[in-house]
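Readers of this paper often ask what the protein records in our data store actually look like. Below, we set out a record of this kind in full and without editing:
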Amino acid sequence: MASFPMNAGDGLYSYSKNSHLQKEIIDGVKEMVRDVIIRKLDIKTILSSSNTIHITELGCSVGPNTFSSMQHIVEALKDKYLYQDQLIDSSKSIPEFQIFFNDQVTNDFNTLFCLLPVDRSYYASGVPGSFHGRLFPSRSIHFAHCSTSIHWLSKIPKELLDKNSPAWNKGLIDYVGASNVEIVNAYVAQFERDMEMFFNARAEEIVPGGMMVLVSPFLGYGKLDESLVDSFNLPLYLPSPQDMTKVVEKNGLFSIERMELINIKSNLVDEADAKTLMMSLRSSIEGVIINHFGSKIAEEACARTILKSKEISEWMKVNYEKTSILFVALKRK
C-alpha cells in the first residue's frame, strides 16, 4: 500500500481518498490471509517467550486500507488463539497486539496517526525506513504483512539510464512492452537483489515459526521532451510465481506455505471505470512523476489523462486483462 508523500493527506487526489484499487486487492485476499493464520501459524511457539504479538505492516501509506488489513489480521490471530489451538494454557489471557506501521521516511505519518481508528484493538507505532533493510531488533516480529508494495524496487536499474547500455529504455517507462530482453533482465536482476536484502532483513527480525504474507499485483509477460521520457523509468517490477519461488528458494530462510495467483473482481477494471482507476494510480505514482518532470508537467499530464477517461474506458472494455494478484505466505524456518 506504499505511496509517495505528495497528495498523501485529504486532498482531491490523496491516497486516503483514491486508493480504491488497493482496497479491492486487500478485500480480495482477506479470507486467504485468515486461512494461512488459522492453518499454518504455530501460535504456541511464537508466544513461548511473550504474551504480546508483534505485527508489522510494511508499506502502510496513510490509510484507510492499512487499518482494515491490520484489524482483520488481529481478529484472525485472536480466533486462532481462542479456538484453534487447544494446547495453549487456558489460564493465560488473550495476547495483546502491537502493530508497527512502516513506510518510507517521506510518508505522511501525521495523517496516518490522525486517521487511526479510535476503537482499534491494538497498540500502534510508526517505523520509518525502507523495508529493503533492517527495521526491527532480532527475533522481535511474529507476523509481517506487505500488500501492493513489494513490487516497488529500491532504485531504478542503472543500466536503464545509460545511453550506451543494451538496456537503455528508450521510449518506454517500464519493462512492459519492451522488445529488448536486456531491459527485462535489468528489472529482474534489480528485483532479485532487492528481495535478497528484504528476506535477509526479515529473517533476522521474524521469530522462528513466525509468518509473512506478501500480496503483489501481477501482469502477464508483456507533449514532453523525448529525452525526458527516455530517461524516465518506473522503479517497479511485478513478480510472477516463478520469480517469487526463485528468490525465496535462493534465500533459503523461509518456507513457502502457500502461493497462489488469483483473479479478483475489480469494479474499476471489470466495469472499465477509467476515471477512478486513473485517480487511484495517480495517488500512488504522482510523486515519481513530479520528481522527474516537475509538478507543472505532472499536473498537466494527469489532468489530460482524466479528460480522456471516456476514451480509455472504451479501450479497457476491449483490451484490459483481468486483475491478477500474487498471494504468498511464508514461514520463518
